[in-house]
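Hi all, a correction to my earlier message: I attached the wrong file for Leucine-rich repeat domain-containing protein. Here's the right sequence:
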Amino acid sequence: LNTDWRDVVKSTLKISKEPSPRELQKFFTTTHIRCDNRRIHSLAPVRVLEQLQQLRCDESPVENLEPLKGLRKLQRLYAFDCDFVSLEPLREITSLKLLWISSTQVSDLEPVSGLVNLEELYCSETPVYDLFPLTKLENLEKISFYKTSVSSLAPLRQLQNLIELGFNHTGVSDLTPLEDLENLEYLRFSNTTIDSLAPLAGHINIRELSFNDTLISSLDPLSTLPELEEVSFAGTPVSSIEPLMELGYLEKIELSAGQVPAEELEKFLEMHPDCEVLMRK
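and the right structure:
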């Protein structure tokens, strides 16, 4: 073991000196490992940790995930900001519930297509361009793919358990595939060319919407969202907040200075005295 891995073993066992044989035995049965933010290029020592449920190797120059191949109890993998390019070694790890691979060079999600227990996937700032491998992952609840080349939400159409979705700075231009996803609560799609909120009308569970710097010009569909708490629409052609007037749970809205008539804003503040209004210059 190199120095970094020796430190990982010590911190896992909460000891300061070199581990005894008995302590090493305990390490082999550990369920959680943190080797994040270290100069670790290889995960080879993890290969023998058959009880491992959670691994954090984020912000480390990890070159491949091959040593994880046999870890059939792994549930959470935090591997953002690493150097690997392929998810192939994860193909058979159906126990995975959380996969965080943002800021890596992964371009193909195909190896996750059979990970039926996956609940959270974060792949922002990667060369990922297609969500098709997610089509049948019905347990997915949270997905984000900011700053990717993804241009279509169609593969998400059947994901009825989806609660949280974020895709700022992508080529997505249409929300229609989300029409029937009634469990959505948090949706963020700033800096896209989306121009209509119509597919969200009647999504009664939505709590937070963020679509700054988009082509959306009307908030009308939001009048049917009774649970809405936060909405951001700075830098859009929206010119009226009338559809927000009757929403009872609003806590925060963000818009551009001068975006709506002053008297309309005054009326809104009278009706929602506790709502925070952020004005973007």
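Sorry for the mix-up. The longest helix spans residues 3-13.
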